[in-house]
Amino acid sequence: MASSFSSNFQALIDAISMNQLRNSYIISLITNRRNAHTIVRADEASIPWDYFNLISNGFLQKGETDKQKLAKCYQKYNVVLASKILSTDKE
After folding, report:
1. Could you tell me if 66 and 34 are in contact, meaning their C-beta atoms sit under 8 angstroms apart?
2. What is the pTM of this model?
3. Which of 23, 49, 81, 84 could make an S-S bridge to 42, C-beta 3.0–4.6 Å?
4. How far apart are CA 52 and CA 68, in angstroms?
5. H or E element, residue 74
6. CB–CB of 26/6 below 8 Å?
7. CA distances (Å), 33 to each of 10, 25, 38, 53, 61, in order?
8. Torsions phi, psi for 40 (to 5 deg)
9. Is 47 helix (H, G, I), strand (E, B) or coil?
């Protein structure tokens, strides 16, 4: 995960490249914002990334306010997100 500007993500990239985090590597990035600067940082570091969003991926209708529907949408989204994270190929 990374914030939209991704300064912490860049700090991880830098620390790994300088061997400050031994035996560590970033295998991929999943972002829920299509225009997040973190995508640029991932591209510059040759880190594969995937865009995965509640609305764009059909889990939630834009403007939904019903709390029960929101809870169900988030639950389904989180299950699929966790599956994506756990199924990412590890080198």
Report:
1. no
2. 0.81
3. 49
4. 22
5. helix 67-87
6. no
7. 17, 23, 9, 7, 16
8. -60, -45
9. coil
User: Token pair 């973190």 is at which residue?
Assistant: 38
Report the chain (91 residues): mean pLDDT per 10 consecutive residues. Answer: 79 95 92 91 95 94 95 96 82 52
The three-point CA angle 74-79-81 to 5° equals 90
The whole-number pLDDT of residue 6 equals 83
26: buried, middle or exposed (CB in 10 Å: 19+, 13-18, 0-12)? middle
The two structure tokens encoding residue 76: 């389904």
Quick check: 80 and 29 in contact, CB under 8 A? no
Tell me which H or E stretch contains 86. helix 67-87
Backbone dihedral angles phi then psi of residue 39, each to the nearest 5 degrees: -65, -40
